[in-house]
Amino acid sequence: MTTRLQTIRKKHPQSDLVIISKRVIEKMDNNPVFPDPPAALEALKKVLPEYEAALVNAMGRDKEWGAIKNDKKAIVLNLLADLSWYVMATCKGDKVLLLSSGFDITGEVRSPLTPAIEKLEVDIGPPGEATTRIRNVTAAIAYVHEYATEPPGLHTAWTSKGSSQGSYTFTGLTTDKRYWFRVVAIGRGGQTAYSPVVTRVIQ
Question: Which fold has domain 121-201?
Answer without folding.
Answer: Immunoglobulin-like (2.60.40)
